[in-house]
Design goal:
306 residues; mainly alpha; 13 helices; 74% helix; 0% strand
Length: 306
């Protein structure tokens, strides 16, 4: 549908609404179903399952060679790739056990669970903040480090390369140290990195930043699912709690980057300082809420698994 759009409203409906809804329907069941098949190493299994999107993000820049076939066919090629690669999982993925009755989309009781609510706020602020860098790192590199447009084009692929490790190694450790503990550590590191971009003005520094930023923000994709499961009292409430947590994440993603764009444009399109302060402060809030979730769950025993 996107490949044949001629007007903005058509593009908004096809790429924004329909594609967004489709990806949402794919992501959440994928996370939930994978975890059902593991009694141990659930976080590690979820990390491996989430690895596909970061690998796809590394391969996607190859589409830089597609303008010669036009936007329409370039978009159709991407659609065909999605169609082919989704056939196998759609055929073989099945819940390990179906619930005896239809579950509610929302778990209202979860709103009285302090650790869960605080973690949900952490995910909201986290998704508001982390994608600011994804959207603006290329423009920042060209404006502040005199990076060539050709090299800047591959910065997102570099971030996704770092994210591949950031979805495997932390999840492997999380099964022993605790998913919430690992999320706190990596959210805190992400906030420091986001603020540190203010001082990076060289090409080599930005490339190194992209690798590290991808690594530490990878847990925002791979760990929320296992963390919500660890904060849920039983499997019956997991579906509703998972959907609410990722609705929070989606809301953050919807709001954060457009606000960042408005901040950047407020000073002639060059207010990079406030842009990064916006991103960094949101990630600080995310880490703070997650620390609050741990305190609400286990108290001030910071060495306790959570």
């Amino acid at each position: 549908m996107t490949s044949i759009c001629k007007n903005y409203w058509e593009l908004f409906l096809a790429q924004g609404v329909v594609t967004g809804a489709g990806f949402g329907c794919l992501f959440l069941p994928g996370v939930t179903i994978v975890s059902q098949y593991f009694s141990t190493r659930k976080a590690f299994a979820t990390g491996i399952a989430s690895l596909g999107s970061s690998i796809g993000g590394q391969c996607d820049p190859d589409n830089a060679h597609m303008p010669r076939i036009g936007f329409g066919w370039a978009t159709r090629v991407i659609g065909f790739i999605l169609l082919i690669t989704l056939i196998l999982p759609l055929v073989v993925m099945r819940p390990l056990k179906y619930p005896p009755k239809r579950r509610s989309l929302l778990d209202v009781k979860a709103l009285r669970d302090a650790p869960y609510v605080l973690f949900g706020l952490g995910i909201l602020f986290g998704y508001m903040g982390i994608y600011v860098v994804f959207f603006y790192i290329q423009l920042y590199a060209m404006s502040n480090a005199d990076m060539s447009s050709h090299l800047a084009f591959y910065l997102l692929a570099i971030i996704n390369a770092g994210s591949s490790l950031g979805r495997i190694l932390p999840n492997f450790a999380a099964d022993k140290a605790g998913t919430l503990n690992m999320q706190i550590i990596f959210a805190s590191a992400s906030s420091i990195l986001s603020l540190s971009l203010l001082a990076i003005k060289s090409v080599n520094g930005i490339i190194a930043f992209c690798v590290l930023y991808g690594f530490f923000t990878g847990t925002f994709v791979s760990l929320p699912g296992p963390t919500v499961a660890s904060l849920s009292p039983d499997m019956a409430s997991l579906g509703g709690r998972m959907s609410m947590a990722f609705m929070s994440a989606g809301t953050g993603l919807l709001v954060g980057s457009p606000v960042a764009g408005a901040i950047l444009s407020s000073n002639g399109g060059n207010d990079w300082t406030m842009l990064q302060v916006w991103s960094g402060v949101l990630l600080v809030l995310s880490a703070t809420c997650m620390i609050g979730a741990k305190v609400a769950k286990v108290g001030f025993r910071f060495k306790a698994k959570a």
